Amino acid sequence: MASVRNAAALHLTEAFGTGHWSGFTTTPSALRGITSSRVLIAREGDTVVATLRLATKRPWAIDAAYFAPSANPLYLVDMAVLPGTQRQGAGRQLLEAAVNVARGWQKDAIRLDAYDHAAGAGRFYQKCGFAEVGRISYRGVPLIYYQLLL
Prior knowledge:
By secondary structure, this protein is an alpha+beta fold. The protein has one domain: Aminopeptidase (3-Layer(aba) Sandwich), CATH 3.40.630.30. Helices cover 30% and strands 33% of the residues. It has helices at residues 2-16, 27-35, 90-104, 122-127, and strands at residues 38-44, 47-55, 73-81, 109-115, 131-138, 141-149. The protein has a 6-stranded mixed sheet, with helices on both faces. Strand 3 (73-81), helix 3 (90-104) and strand 4 (109-115) form a beta-alpha-beta unit.
């Protein structure tokens, strides 16, 4: 999981320069994320090509006031796709799996944020059915909020 996130961060940094997407994920940090959420991965053979986490706890950068009312939302965080495999469907399939997990858990929405920058994945999320619900600056970082109602 950490290696996919780090490869994606390096790719974005090379393409768009240093930004908040340039952070390095350590193995201990990735392991902490595993204990507090459900991790989904996509593989090609033995290689992990995409990963995301589904969390029931609202991340600090998410302001619930921007979203449609939801009794039981789920939060999608830390999605990354290995750069050499992007635009081949792994990310979309992983999001579809996340929707299935959310429905199985009786969740009524999936919420997330993306960087409001060309390095952000906002257009990808929109193509996958997520609706933009707001734009904010969190600690100086411009973000776009997205939501998929289930």
